[in-house]
Amino acid sequence: MTGWVEDPDTYPMAAKRHSIEYLREVAHMRPRTNLIGAVARVRHTLAQALHRFFDEQGFFWVSTPLITASDTEGAGEMFRVSTLDMENLPRNDQGKVDYDKDFFGKEAFLTVSGQLNGETYACALSKIYTFGPTFRAENSNTSRHLAEFWMLEPEVAFADLADNAALAEAMLKYVFKAVLTERADDMKFFAERVDKDAIERLERFVTADFAQVDYTDAVTILENCGKKFENPVYWGVDLSSEHERYLAEEHFKAPVVVKNYPKEIKAFYMRLNDDGKTVAAMDVLAPGIGEIIGVPSVKSVWTFLMLVWLKWV
Prior knowledge:
Layout: H1 20-25, H2 34-56, E1 60-61, E2 67-68, E3 80-81, E4 108-110, H3 115-125, E5 127-135, E6 148-156, H4 161-182, H5 184-193, H6 198-207, E7 211-214, H7 215-223, H8 241-251, E8 256-262, E9 278-286, E10 290-296, H9 301-312
Parallel strand pairs: 1-5, 7-8
Antiparallel strand pairs: 2-4, 3-4, 5-6, 8-9, 9-10
Helix pairs in contact: 2-4, 2-5, 4-6
């Protein structure tokens, strides 16, 4: 449909650059802008490249439910799904909301992760991945927390931490190379209008050798670097964004894999290392971002189920 703009002064998309904040207010029209159009095309290429990569690696894509009764991450920060009348909630004998009267006959939520479903399929198909929308009800107004985002979760039945690190590096380089080659015009636009280093940063990423460091050694590096951080550094602390970015941007000057974290700061189901203090988990840190991938090595299914039972009985 085309037509004349009767009053250009009141037309919401004037012929000028608009801020991201303003474009959010006219969401029905922002796809027409150069910026959002480029973002949409790059996102398409990223998604297609991810599917191609995992298909070539022998993985099967598993579509997991968006509505679930499980709090996979154990954080309790979930969006509730209900058809009950909020103005007239049914109550049980204890005065609590009676979810027996709800659509599913029990409490239901938007998924925080497809991990639990993915692990069951990995036990049958060996190598699978999930890729789809994820929801977190974390009341954190930061650039690192989103209420809704798309998350990729590969699951491999028989793999160790070295295998996971190699897969993560190969995947990131594959998809970023696809963006550079297939979306060259859009990347040029980003370099001209958004970030002049956008292309160079991705080119460095796809040619870099990923550094690897144990968590213990990473803490030592941070403690001895002579830089004052807002968040204190000590063995056992969960590394913050400033710690991660220092390691990737200033110390290693490359993507870095931090591995073997203290068991107290990771999920209970992660595989315990021989030292009894750390678990086989790793994070991939990227310059300019910080953590871009988090990877656990999960215990055997039997051990995992026993831990779940002990945790909740």
